[in-house]
Amino acid sequence: MDNQYSYYQNLYNMFGGYNPLIDTKVKQLRRLGFVIGCGMICFTLMQYAVAALLQIFGLYSLYESDALFQTGISAIAPLVYVLLPFVLVYALYNREERNCVDIFDLPKSKELFLFSVFTGLLVCSIGDRATSFISAFVSAAGVDFEKPDVLDANTPMGYFLQIVAYAVIPPLVEEFAMRGVVMQPLRKYGDKFAIVVSAVLFAALHGNMVQIPFAFIAGLALGYFAIITNSIWTSVAIHCLNNLSATIISIYYTNHSEEDMFFFYAIEGAILVLGIIAFILFMRLKPQRLAKTNDEIGSSLKYSTVFCTPSVVISLLISLFTSLSFTSITSAGGVLFTVAMVALIAFFLIKGSMNARKDTRITKNPMYNFSIAITVIVTFFIMYFVMVLPLK
Question: 0.85 exceeded by the pTM?
Fold first, then answer.
């Protein structure tokens, strides 16, 4: 195959052209990114659909006031707004891409699985601490992050539903979507590339800055250990244990004073100790390195091709706007900081779109012009929204 690439590259260079095999791969990647982005948009639409159904059946006021009912809906809803959109994405894949999503095999080694799970849990804990640091830093700049309020169902049934809603259903459906449907077909273009793309989109799913930095860091670990162990069940286990520990801590502090920090430190300490031991044992197993790709596309073009398709741009901007709706700006400095961050994101999207416009080598693809237009229009709208908001 390498000789075939070299032959075509040399032939096309004689006429100022490009390798048609690489060109085909870029076109396939562009299509893949577009389909995945459509799944991300569908995820947002399905959330609104769930809310609309509650309104239609006169249950929305009950959802807002009854903790048990709200938790029960939270347990079922991910099956609608996470699972269904990415089943649709899977259905839109071609045969080769569908075959890549064969990720339900058991881990290739029990020891590697066990050490990976607790090492991954440690990385998630580190991500949580990093997110707290980021929140404190931007708070000093005049920006406070928030997340949607949820009611506490303080009954045995409520506790059971919380575990199902936060520690069982999300790990299953989100790992199927992100580490399965999204990440696996992208591995054709490199494991590191696939891990990063799935982590960014996993973060974008959360739609608030309290969770986005953590979700990105955790997503990197979840993708890595799913690949290293050759099983999505590893990332499901890490995800489940992380959410379970957070849920148990939350349940504990609904019935105890928040000044009683012993329980929190006991859980975090156990994760730290077990994680360090697991990491040492994990490294002693000498796990295989992530596979590299020799497709000669180049990292910059690969990331631009995926992230700057119109559907992915729209989904990222929706996540940004949703995040801002859960953000309190408390000073003029906070306004400047937020505008600067929005401008930075827009800069990368526009720069990436301009880079990706060249990816067909022979004819320009208009979808990236559309991505630039979307980014410019939405960025000005978001900046106006930020600057006219009253300071809190």
Answer: yes
